[in-house]
Amino acid sequence: MSSHDHAHAGHSHAGHDHHDHAHAPATAPSCCDGGGASATAPLPASAGGLLLRIPAMDCPTEEGQIRRALEGFPDVRRLHFDLPARALTVDAPPASWAAVTAAIARAGFKTETLSAPPASEDTAQARRKELVRLVAALVVATGAELLHFLAPDGTLWHLAGMAVAALAIALSGLSVFGKGLSSLTRGQLNINALMSVAVIGAFVIGQWPEAAMVMALYSLAELIEARSVERARNAITGLLALSPEQAEVRQPDGRWARLEARAVTVGAIVRVKPGERFALDGRVTAGQGAVDQSPVTGESIPVDKAPGDAVFAGTINQSGALEFEVTRPAGDTVLAGIIHAVEAAQGQRAPTQRFVDRFAAVYTPAVFVLALAVAVGTPLLLGWPWLTGIYKALVLLVIACPCALVISTPVTVVSGLAAAARQGILIKGGVHLEEARKLKVLALDKTGTLTEGRPRLVAQQVLVTGQDAALVVQLAHSLAARSDHPVSQAIAAGLPADALPVQNFGADLGRGVHGRIAEQDLVLGNHRWIHERGQCSPELETLMQEHEAQGRTVSLLAGADRVLALFAVADRPRATSREAVAELQALGVHPVMLTGDNPSTARAIASQVGIADVRAELLPQDKQQAVGALSAQGPVGMVGDGVNDAPSLAAAAVGFSMGAAGTDTAKEAADVLIMNDDLRRLPEVIRLSRRTYAVLWQNISLALGIKAVFFALAVFGSATMWMAVFADMGASLLVVFNGLRLLRGVAR
Known about the structure:
Layout: E1 50-53, H1 60-69, E2 78-82, E3 87-91, H2 97-106, E4 112-114, H3 120-150, H4 155-185, H5 191-204, H6 208-237, E5 246-250, E6 256-260, E7 269-272, E8 282-286, E9 289-292, H7 294-297, E10 303-305, E11 310-311, E12 316-317, E13 322-326, H8 334-345, H9 351-382, H10 386-399, H11 403-421, E14 425-427, H12 430-435, E15 441-444, H13 446-450, E16 456-462, H14 469-481, H15 486-494, E17 503-508, E18 512-517, E19 520-526, H16 527-532, H17 538-549, E20 552-558, E21 563-570, H18 577-586, E22 590-594, H19 599-609, E23 613-615, H20 620-630, E24 636-640, H21 646-651, E25 654-658, H22 664-669, E26 672-674, H23 681-716, H24 721-740
Parallel strand pairs: 15-22, 15-24, 22-23, 24-25, 25-26
Antiparallel strand pairs: 1-3, 1-4, 2-3, 5-6, 5-7, 7-13, 8-11, 8-13, 9-10, 9-12, 14-26, 16-21, 17-18, 18-19, 19-20, 20-21
């Protein structure tokens, strides 16, 4: 935000308003079929959402199919899938509920309407039942194998073995068959269809013990994989547990009572003792103490709090009892806003993720055709026995599942987003997480970004004679007090005067403010504006240059025909600015200062933080053009916090905004929010982006490499269906755990 853009009236500088404005259904790919995997928070029953139980939905495969079935519904604003509970919450108007359930039914899934979200104990019980069922299936499949190897020859024993194998398949695979048949009837090829064909084929050619074991192992491995994926999703939603469910609230009679946090109203007074967490957002009204804000802002050092300071849900009061007035309801805290925004961001697929989706869409049918070629071609061309060719084709079908490949990208991206959120960095989508690694240039605004944004009036001078100096000061104070720009606020705070009524008040972005006071048309503007008005003189230029050489920002009060007074304010660079700039340069990123301030002041601040490339006296459109011009050097990032930075933030490859000092407009336009305004988070975003990209391609290489090896073994070696299942599920678990590595070192 330029130090001369005295035009922020009407925009909040509270800086902690995070709006979840991404309500479109997420479309991130899911395991095996390119569907979606979302971790969005479940909608409460009171919100009017449609709550469904879908018994056949137990894998991201089905989640993706249901997502695609609902893609054409504009009324569907948001979806939440709870795979362990087989539950789906649909945020849509009641008038569209019948059409939604009909669309899900056409996709092959029966639905049951619920009156409330499934309780956590019900979910845990369902998980235990499923685990017991699959373990039982594995035991029965082992019995079928023992019968096959140990039982004497004879039709009776053979039939008994087949019956035991069929029981194992029924225990573990009926839902797989149902979903596979549904996919085949719709002309889709996914893992359920491949596994159904492979198991039935193995049973038909007499490999029934192996068919039973393959189905049992596959279903058990799918359950383990689903739990592993949950860990990445819960890395975000688990932050909600940081907020206590109860708060100590002062009652009308003065006593204190513990109430449910969600029942506490805005304006209530809450008490937090040392060692306790804040359950709600608010503003301190009594007491002093240090608060650990790391769960929300990532700050490692506790922040001192006194009356008037903001506090956030999920943070920890480390010393001194504090009383605060609640400013937000439980569902609208800053912590909840971070969680909802990151969850919504998971629906934005990164470029690598989209590439994998396209690849998987071609890969699965291609492997199915290859399996048919092996089943028919090897006996005809190579003279292999038909049963051998068919068996090798079935092994190919088992290993063909693109599950490990497709699941590798969303798990990695979600882990990266969670890792960033835990460090006080809110990234609005996987695409921005991935694009940050490419940045070659980072343009930074000066005031409020590189500097603290809290300038103070350090010099003032009335420039006209024969006019009451006190009146001139009062005129300047009256204009400055109407603006919420930091420079104007510094002038107003530094001038001891009473404000006069201002008529026709207005602001000119990048220049200053104007208004009519006591029948005089006045402006309070920067050097550039006064020059454009033709009111600069050589003497005034010299005077301004003296202040600007000291790193001060000069504002001038002018009437219709002359300049009345000069006011100089000074702002200090942030303590972290120089370190952040040095880290950016070490990463190969070229820092550039873009500011509306004068060249002398800009160069003075730039020299203190280590920036050599300075572009000064820029209007908002000039900043936007500068970002475009810098793009010739490579992808450009922009860091800003003000209304006037919004165009350049939108124009940049990745826009960064200060989460605390930034205006709502800047935060809406930005792709990344730095919650604690610590500029050292900028190089951390780039490092995290590079780590995420490296893990993405490690996972892709692992998934494809393992499959390539087993393709060769399946056709020309002695790979069995057992080996294929272990290889496929092992690859899936391997890429999941590799993606979860991004969460290391940031756990709270």
